[in-house]
């Protein structure tokens, strides 16, 4: 009988995401078990329970998935899972809280592709404003872009305090500088957009974040990406399927949630499939997601 692929899905929240369960099973896992309201301290015990019940050679057929809605906590949980391993017993581990690592990776990779193909630019030095900056997708997109050399700002729709805390966490954890900015009023948003070359819009589902006139007034804007697939769109006038379509009279290009979702879906599925087929235990976070999203976009 072939060795079974088993995935243990952990979340600090009340429920593991049904989206991630479907993705894991469709990617090929034979069995998926869910653990909700898991604390950071409980991760080691759960991982050790999983490793000691199978011979070491089956470690690669055992996976741990970490969900939730907080990027820093998910990375801490991934590290705790890794530290709990007792060689030669091992497992593969993949963190993707609220799908944010794969979604942010797909958004940045799609922007990079459009920049390269249509504007002969790359991410280095690109002035990025991340709207929905208080959310986990926005957080992850800012980190990925900044690690690629972009000058990223996290926009707080309710003031600067929450995004300033995120910027502190990012600086301490990754040694990169993200600018927290106040996007709580129309004039403040206009001021942010006046120096922005790329918009990453990662606001709450079904929330209109930017109007057509905001986009039209953004003189330096080169590209705008929106991940919100629930109407109304995060950016007015940006078609859900847009993939480098012109959205302003000044030539700014738009990328919609369905184009990004296509790469996100393939990235998450692809990382699960790599866990299933690997002959050596693997660890995946937003960096691996971005590398794969880039590859899928090439
Ligand atoms: N296309 C895809 O493949 C894909 C995949 C996954 C997710 N998504 C989408 O990605 C987006 C971000 O996901 P998430 O998990 O980070 O979402 P989220 O936490 O629900 O929302 C992101 C942030 O938007 C903030 N927000 C609320 N009203 C806003 C406004 N008027 N302007 C700007 N920001 C506002 C929220 O603030 P509070 O914290 O105060 O509520 C939250 O922090 C969502 O629209 C989600 O549906 C798309």
Keywords:
298 residues; alpha/beta; Rossmann fold; 2 domains; 7-stranded mixed β-sheet; 10 helices; 12 strands; 43% helix; binds NADP nicotinamide-adenine-dinucleotide phosphate
- Order of the strands making up the biggest sheet: 7-6-5-8-9-11-10
Weakly predicted, low-confidence segments: none
By helix and strand content, what is the structural category? alpha/beta
* Distinct helical segment count: 10
How many beta-strand elements?
Answer: 12
CATH homologous superfamily name of the largest domain?
NAD(P)-binding Rossmann-like Domain
Output the helix-strand order: EHEHEHEHEHEHEHEHEEEHEH
CATH architect. name of the largest domain: 3-Layer(aba) Sandwich
Task: Give the termini separation.
Answer: 38 Å
The overall pLDDT average reads 97
The major sheet is characterized as: 7 strands, mixed
Helix content: 40-55%
Bound molecule types = NADP nicotinamide-adenine-dinucleotide phosphate
Report what the structure shows.
With 298 residues, the protein is an alpha/beta fold. The chain has 2 domains: 6-95, 3-Layer(aba) Sandwich (Rossmann fold); 100-260, NAD(P)-binding Rossmann-like Domain (Rossmann fold, 3-Layer(aba) Sandwich). The protein is built from 10 helices and 12 strands. The protein has helices at residues 18-27, 40-51, 71-83, 100-119, 136-147, 161-174, 186-194, 212-217, 257-277, 286-297; strands spanning 6-10, 31-35, 62-66, 92-95, 127-131, 151-156, 179-182, 198-201, 223-226, 243-246, 253-255, 283-284. Strands 7-6-5-8-9-11-10 form a 7-stranded mixed sheet, with helices on both faces. A 5-stranded parallel sheet has the order 2-1-3-4-12, sandwiched between helices. The radius of gyration is 20 Å and the shape is elongated. The structure holds NADP nicotinamide-adenine-dinucleotide phosphate. The site of NADP nicotinamide-adenine-dinucleotide phosphate has 25 residues, from α4, α5 and α9.
């Amino acid at each position: 009988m072939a060795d079974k692929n088993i995935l243990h899905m952990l979340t600090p929240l009340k429920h593991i995401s049904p989206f991630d369960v479907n993705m894991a099973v469709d990617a090929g896992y034979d069995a998926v078990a869910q653990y909700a309201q898991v604390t950071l301290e409980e991760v080691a015990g759960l991982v050790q329970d999983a490793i000691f019940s199978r011979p070491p050679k089956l470690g690669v057929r055992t996976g741990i998935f970490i969900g939730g809605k907080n990027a820093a906590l998910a990375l801490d949980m991934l590290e705790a899972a890794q530290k709990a391993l007792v060689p030669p017993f091992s497992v593969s581990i993949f963190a993707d809280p609220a799908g944010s690592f794969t979604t942010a990776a797909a958004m940045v990779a799609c922007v990079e592709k459009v920049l390269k193909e249509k504007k002969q630019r790359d991410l280095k030095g690109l002035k990025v404003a991340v709207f929905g900056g208080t959310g986990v997708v926005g957080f992850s997109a800012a980190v990925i872009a900044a690690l690629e050399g972009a000058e990223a700002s996290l926009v707080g729709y309710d003031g600067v305090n929450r995004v300033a805390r995120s910027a502190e966490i990012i600086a301490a954890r990754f040694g990169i500088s993200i600018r927290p900015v106040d996007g709580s009023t129309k004039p403040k948003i206009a001021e942010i957009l006046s120096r922005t070359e790329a918009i990453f819009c990662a606001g709450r589902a079904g929330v209109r974040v930017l109007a057509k006139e905001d986009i039209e007034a953004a003189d330096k804007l080169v590209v705008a990406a929106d991940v919100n697939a629930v109407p109304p769109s995060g950016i007015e006038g940006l078609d859900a399927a847009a993939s480098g379509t012109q959205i302003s009279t000044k030539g700014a290009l738009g990328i919609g949630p369905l184009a990004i979702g296509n790469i996100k879906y393939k990235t998450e599925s692809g990382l699960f499939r790599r866990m299933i087929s690997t002959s050596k235990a693997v660890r995946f976070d937003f960096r691996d997601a971005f590398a794969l999203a880039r590859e899928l976009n090439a």
